[in-house]
Fold each of these.
Amino acid sequence: MTNDLLIARVAGERIALAAIEVQSVIELGEIVPVPLAPRLVAGLATQRSRTLTVIDVALALDLAPTIGGARFAVVVEIEGVGYALAVDAVEHVIPALSPVQPAKIKLSPGWLHCAAGMVDTSVGTVLKVDLTRLVAGPEQKAA
Amino acid sequence: MDDLITEFIAETREMLQALERGLVAWERDPGERERLADIFRFVHTVKGNCGFFDLPRLEALAHAAEDALGDVRAGKRSIDRALVDAVLAVIDRIGEMIEAIAAGEDVSGGNDAELIARFTVTDPQPVIAAPVGPAAKPAPAREPFRSVRLPTNLVDRVMSGVSDMILVRNELERQLRHSDGDPALLANFGRLSSLLSEMQAAMARVRMQPIGTLLDSYQRMVRDLAAELGKQVEVEIESGQVELDREMIELLRDPLLHVIRNAIDHGIETPAERLAAGKPAEGRLMLSARQTGNEIRIAILDDGRGIDAEKVVARAFERGLVTAEQAARMDVSEKLMLVCEPGLSTAQAVTAISGRGVGMDVVRASIERTGGKLRIASAPGEGTRFLLDVPLTLSIVPSITVEVGAQVFAVPRSYVREIVRNGHDVEVERIGGMRHVRVRGELYPCLGLGALFGIDCEQDPERQVLVMVTMIDGSVFALCADDIADHCELVIRPVAPQVIATGLYVGVAQLNDGKPALMLDLVGIAQLGGISSDKQARIAAPAAAEADVRELAAVIVFAGRDGIRRAVPLEKVERLIEVTEPEIGRGSGLPHIVFAEAIVPLHGVSTERRDEPIDVLVLSEGGRRLAFASAGAVDTAEIDLATVTDETGRRMALLDGQPVELLDLARLSGLLPTCRLPNDDAWARTFLRPLVESAGYQVVDGQGPADLEIMLEADGGERLLIGNGGLAVAKDDAAALQAALRAIGGRRAS
């Protein structure tokens, strides 16, 4: 279904992604670091012959990263570039029970930047992520 | 039947494309038999193929051209302008009809009688109108080049399939290595493995297309457009073996077309205007493509009237695109780039040719969309140069991979001058706060990749490998890595914009073991390492403005103990050492120090003795060492050679607006008498110089003072005048010259 959501767990929180945007879920193998890249770029991983840029979702959302690091990644393609969004766990794919609505709760700065809105599901209300803003990283704070 | 006609269309298109280049050449020299044969073969094949299909118009056209050309080949008819035009018109019409058929249109209606009649105009014997019949004599046709059209996503799928197979192959290879395998199994695996490698190599090239094909395709357009405008244009194409991704070629097709149209329409003048300006009547248009490192540079050059940057600015100001202050701050290239601003047409009158709705703004946008850059350089009255730098995304780059710690990075091989393993001929030194390496006596800045990237790796430079990198401006630096992993051809794919934004990487490639390796952007690396590279400025400089390019020399700047700021060329500095007073030998002559088991004269110290240690630069000039004391604060800098002057009797140059004295090493480097030889004389350099040097003179260049001057006799130049004493010897009498030099040397000693 086009309104299905993929529910993943990051830094103790649930996040939702539009399932239609998700190409696959992979277990992260070796990650090759990218020296001097923005912090949220965890490195490069490969999915067969394809190179993916690994984004540390916890860092992108400005959340405290889980100890031990993310082991799974959700593979998405944004503007022709393949990304692996590293998360702690992928829980389910479930239908959205409501349209995406503006979040009425107070959000942390990281979420404020990346949230597409709130949506009801069978596991409760979750925040849906705007992928483009997520991979772009937190906005530069004015120095 | 459908398949057959598709095949026919594809083949005809293919032949038309192959013919494109030949046509223009043939037009220049219609008597050339080989090209004539090509064209004949084309119309003959088209006519022959039409027999299978119901295409009477096409057949009649091809037949008429075939007959006329057949007569030319048989010597029954001479070739003239009208015939050439008629043949070209027929070929064009065939092309149009093929496209119409491909689009599924009905081409049976329409009249070609007028076109066919053109073959008879100048011919006393009327050409018999197209009888339908078998081909007269099939020309010994070469095997036609066949091709198929495939959707690119299918090609991509096959390519990634092959890549995946290679990965599995490698994994299997590792597993087999650990088992004591059956020899027959291993042999079969070996075969499979090499077949896969071949397939990979072939697949990697599938997406690539020589850019020459694209450039050649403009030839005809240039000819037609020039004819329409009453201009004469000669096209030169220089594309080498540069290959580019097919998609990239498609993206460039229209922007290039527009730039070329502009060059002919606005750039190149009419023959009369050109002659009046003292130029040949025929204008030149040059299209070239070259691979420079990570980019393909396409240049479109014309020798037309050029663009007047001031007029462009004035117009932009009129339209409110720039303010007066902005305009005042712009340099020439920025002013020229204003032609790419939307709403600014430089042409006084928009002609039918260029006023096609696409402006330079669209051109620039299309090029930037490919990740490329457009630059314009122009000299009014002399011509314009458009430079398009497009990246090599998804191109195959010959590379070297280097290991740094546990990571592997790729470096484009075109930048690599050589690879030096640290050995006895390499020394690592710190000068001016930066690490340098001396390789065979030359000093280069040295960047450790591990240190730059914060990667834990081999710290001892003695055990590292130096990749000597030549930048576009010719400067060289050493990139320090743990080891060389491989020499290989890598398929470079784009990386995420967040990674590109670091300015340090151009793309990513997958290595044979499946791991990704980032390809380094060496310009970014050099900047990160603090090595300035004015690459951009240099590339942008057009030929006409090349004199403006500052010639810089890397120097070491230091303050002497007398407080005077001095500079010495970086490559002359051998080492910076610290000496204490007891180490300075003082006697009646110059003070000296002992360095590398040799006595080296020490300059720049007073007789006053100090307790604290002093810094000394050990310099070498022409194989001789000398030392110069500094008062600390040693720095590297670049001086503009244009500011160097001898006016004060000392060689001085400007550095950041302040004068600095250039050490005259020739004069300092010992007590040898100096001798100046005839300037710019090859014979003097190759024959005279060794003789003079072996006689104990130091040969000096330039205008400075010299102890002895040897000149060629003014008239005829058969004798050498030695010194001011009127001593002259025959030019080819080496023994007499040596004797004369010894005699002068003896006088000096006494």
Note: The interface with chain A takes residues 160, 163-164, 166-167, 407, 452-455, 493-499, 501-502, 504-505, 508, 510, 514-518, 528 of chain B (CB under 8 Å).
Amino acid sequence: MTETTPTTREPDPLEFDQPRVSIRKPEHRFDTQGEAPDAVRVERAMNSFVRDFGRTAAIYMESCIHCGMCAEACHFYEVTQDPQYTPIWKLEPFKQAYKREYGPFAFVYRALNLKPKVTVDELQQWQHLIYDSCTVCGRCSLMCPMGIDIASLVSQARHGMFKAGLVPHELAAVTERARREGSPLGATPKVFADRCEWLADEHEVEITIDKPRADVLCAMSSIEIMKYPESIVATARIMRHIGADWTFRLDGYEATNFGLLTGDAATQKELTLKIIHAAVACGARVVVLPECGHAYTALRWMGANMYGKPLPFKVMHIAEFLAEQVHAGKLRLRKVNRTATFHDPCQLVRRGGAIEAPREVLQALGVELREMYPTKGANWCCGGGGGVVAIHRADELRHKVFRIKMEQIEETGAELPVTSCANCRQTFDDGQAHFKWDKTMHSLLELVADNLVEDEQ
Amino acid sequence: MSLLDFARGPALQWSIVIFVVGVLWRLLGVLLLRTRKDHSAPRKEAAWKGLRLIALRSWPRKEFLGGTAFGEVMGYAFHIGFLLALFFFVPHVLFFADIARGLLGTDLHGLTGLNWPTLPNGVVTLLSAISIAALVAVLIHRIVSPVKRLISNFDDYFSWLVTIAPLATGMAAFAHLGGWPYEQLLAVHLLSAELLLAWFPFGKLMHAFTIFAARGSTGMLFERKGASL
């Protein structure tokens, strides 16, 4: 057993003076939470894993033929050629548990002890595979010849790991902070309100907060609030430009959801419901999500299921919202006469389905789009998704993975790398600093805000 | 009771019973599980169109082809060889017709007036040889590839064995190998096929059925979101 988090401990200090925001590198890692005995941890992990099982996940568990092709799709395997990073291997203890405890022949496996019980030591070893070296990017799910959505199984395994108190230190710390303060990176309602006030003065733009009724409710990610506050300004400028009836609300402004990344389903639900209740309270017709991939998954695809019924409003990623405004002729943009390439955020594009919207916005900006290879659904992940960018011990591996992105972008010869996810963006910032690379990732949202035609008038 | 009588009688009956009951048990065991209703607003209403993934995933996207081509080609080689030999070899067709007459009182010809097509013996021999060669290749790959070696378990090796055994014993019987009595060769061939049937529900051979459910489920879930297939 590694050290367990003491029950009374000061929250980990956050670190904002680095290219990526996380907690400061812990002197002592606590990658085990709570006081439960080993056997109880294992039982909780496995119970949670198999209890979540529905038909689809069970079909997946029955279908793997151990062909190993998923390895070819995984960026962590691609750069290391280390077989432990084979995506389906990341689920091995959980596959064992499924066969032993839940599958149609579980009674045979148990009676003949064909699959041994999983141990805490195994689960602790697997923490590195389930968290540090999986961004839940789902590229493997696109490769699997059986059609198994491996990424969804990793998310399910994370639920088990959380229940067992076996979450990496950083993710446990920021999720705990999110639960206590409403934001994983200290973007509390007061901090957010103060930032908006300061930004409104600094940039001479009206930032609407807590309007009682509004058509459009906007939300931001904590990375933007704390690291890229220009995104808040950009959002406000664009909303004013198109004449939207919009607002931020202090009871639901934070779209980051570390509950989803950690596997803490209760916190995920709590954070999601804040935005849903805020939107309902102001009668919003549309909730516009920030440049954040997993925030999109959390509300667009999982929100209604947390709510228990269809949402009474539409959920859009800011890139989709911008594309809609382009089509409606409301967004008048100055042409950017430069070459650009688009990095596809996995949760937005490959797994979220908003494949063309960001490209339509780039087209409206008049850039010459030079696609990477591979691109769109098959594009490589930046390496920082799924909470990986926050985990200090994963830095070395993540930097190796980042080389793929640098090569992809260099090959396009494009001047402007653009994306629409603040987490990808900070992963690029960190990679840029590490490799002293001369390319800086740009935000699609900020690129649009910087080129609104009215700004020239 | 001779070995051939045993292979044609109780062994055949029991292996079919184990196969049918086992396959149904395993399939229904997962297909009857609950699913939660998805309340999210679909991007595409016609999620069923995602069922095209069942066909689409039969060949990798071009981005993935480089690293997987060997597995794909060898996989197709042994599957196609095995299935053609199984269903279009004259003695097999006669054997199945015999079983059909035993169970239904008639065969395909009696039911429809159509004859089941067959392949010349030489072609079946060639197909079996290709299939065996491809199976040997995938076994070697499983052992030498660090990825496949790590993720492999008993099921992978045993399923390989029960798959290659009917091919090998079938060719041996056809060639009257080693001067053994034909009846014994035939009995061993039948028993090896029955071992495959009896093992089928318990291991990875079940992918012959689950592949449709897995690809279909993912296809529909992803199509609903407009996600990449």
Note: Chain B touches chain A through 61 residues (CB under 8 Å).
